[in-house]
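User: Please run a holo structure prediction.
Assistant: Happy to. Please share the sequence and the ligand.
User: Here you go; the ligand is manganese (II) ion.
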Amino acid sequence: MLPLDVSPEVAAALADGRPVVALESTIISHGLPRPDNLAAAQRFERILADAGVVAATVAVLDGRLKAGLTPDELTRIATEDIAKLSVRDLPIALGRGASGATTVAATSAIADLAGVRVFATGGLGGVHRKASESFDESADLSVLADVPITVVSAGVKSILDIGATLERLETLSVPVLGYGTETFPSFWLTDSGHDLDWRVDGPDEVAAVMSARDALGQRAGIVVANPLPLDQQLDPAVHDRALTDALRMADEQGLVGKEVTPFLLQTIVDLTGGDSLAVNLLIAENNIRVAAAIATSWSGR
Ligand code: PSU
Ligand code: MN
């Protein structure tokens, strides 16, 4: 039997056709520093509740997949030293009865098992700089090619090779929609300078694309790229300095594998004196609001 616990609130909403949005837990455990992470996780769920949408925060606890957490379970994710789990780690965590936070890839897979179609995160994983030497490409991309989830993000961070990430999404046949934009955002910055083929201007347009995707029987999820308003982005000069220094430090320390992304995120928070963290929180909240509107439109179809 699949060891999946869908919370009563999430199960009831899905059964009634009411809107549900999945949230990931790696952003809580590894993406945001303590103690701000717990308050943020609670605020993320409250934004959904205020919009009339049920939150399905996803994680693995004591060897069981979870879609929808109790307040105590959410606190565990924010305060315990738990593993970062991508899809390939799930059978191991379940087999060992372990706990962990789920990445975009693992959250997408578990949300799909639970029947949730819309997911909000901060930024996606992607192709790392110098990936032609390191082969470091997030499993977020290949999983999105295989799981029918609509994920709202502010693009990918400039710690990655954004052009290569967009090329991989094209190869993997994952649709990318600019939400009120013709260019792909780069997380802390509104505009990465990379053009997108398709722009949508509201939640109903995204829901219509989801319906058409289902009618076509396609496998891939849909990436909704939602930029932060220009007046809320990180100061580009501060951004560029912190990015250069963080990349150099990761290089000097010879980091590899799943440590790379959390290290870069934390180092940039440190180097910007917390400015990047404040922007990070605005981004996540912004994406959650858009995901709530999409889930609401989807549930009305
Ligand atoms: N990008 C962010 N914040 C994050 C992450 C990515 O801006 O917290 C997390 C997400 O959980 C994402 C994961 O799925 O990092 C990607 O890690 P990796 O590059 O090791 O695949
Ligand atoms: Mn990686």
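Residues 23 and 57 are 4 Å apart (CA to CA).
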